[in-house]
Amino acid sequence: MSVAQRAAPAGGAVDGGTASLQPPASRGLRALRGIGLLAAFGALALVLLLSVWLGTRGIPFGATWDLLWHPDGSENAVIIHAYRIPRTVVGVLVGVALGLSGALMQAITRNPLAEPGVLGVSLGAATGVVVGIAFLGVSTVPGYLWFAVAGAAVATVVVYTIGSAGRAVATPERLVLAGAAVTAVLYAFNTAVLLLHPRAFDEFRFWNVGSLAGRDLDVVWPVLPLVVAGVLLALLLTRPLNALAMGDQLGRALGAHIGRTRALGALAATLLCGAATAAAGPIAFVGLAVPHIARMIVGPDQRWVLPYSLVLAPTLLVGSDVLGRVIAGPGEVQVGIVTAFLGAPLFIALCRKRKLGSL
């Protein structure tokens, strides 16, 4: 009997050299989870329809539905197809990226409070944008993309290097502390650069608030490949992430490559976080709250947590964007502000209902 087989819990399975550590779910439970995922897709579809329908200019629902499938070149058709649909698509991409990056960060650090913002990855992406605006004259959202990804990648490497410095391995606690330190340094650097470059400050302050307004297909195409690559990589890591949840030593005993899993998870989270931040600016609480909601529904099995996060996060983000248009009409409240107001009490409620000691 192998080490993996001796260490595997009753009912566990070893698949392809990586253990599936979750007890096998009954057929009824799998069916319920599948139905729940379909219901989540239904909620997402409803929110997307509302995003196309509602806006600062009132268009009847029937006319919106007709123009959605049969654009006639009218002003309302232009509003729907040139503004609302691209904005909605960007919202979906950003939501998917934030939800999955948060779930990955919490899984690879085994810390329920971890998200790209806590580990300094989001601020690393913002720092890349600040450098691009202040020193290289970048002024478009597509232009921000590679600076945001590069900044997120540098922050990830620095945090992991600091967290694994010395003889000790990069434990979740060391990574979170390293992330806090890097975040403080990057915040000071960004503040200094923006104070010394007033033009950069004027451009950065509108992007930094987190908004989907004005995002068109020129934003979608450069962001899409990074989000797709990050999603595919994240979904391929579901089984190793389940092994990682058992701890490094037991995970290795069960056949999982801990270092490779963490590195690939960090790569996927970097791609997703960098793409989302470049497209819409820093948006808080989506990556933190959504994975907890997913675990409340389906438990700790990453094979279900990641797909649920992939669907629930864009529902929350696009829904927040719609709410921001409705409550402040004829103006609007940026989605980053709405998610902060919605996400903070939601996360407090989650903390009161669940013990968040570990994942």
Can you walk me through this structure?
The protein has helices at 3-7, 27-53, 61-69, 75-109, 121-136, 141-163, 172-196, 198-208, 217-236, 238-244, 248-253, 258-280, 286-298, 302-327, 335-353, and strands spanning 13-15, 18-20. Strands 1-2 form a two-stranded antiparallel ribbon. By secondary structure, the chain is mainly alpha-helical. Helix 2 runs parallel beside helix 14 and helix 5 packs parallel to helix 7.
Distance between the termini: 29 Å
Biggest sheet strand order reads 1-2
Q: What spatial form do the alpha-carbon principal axes imply?
A: globular
Could you tell me the strand content as a percent range?
A: under 5%
Largest sheet: 2 strands, antiparallel
Q: Count of helices?
A: 15
Which parts are unreliable, with pLDDT below 50 for 5 consecutive residues or more? 1-19
Radius of gyration: 21 Å
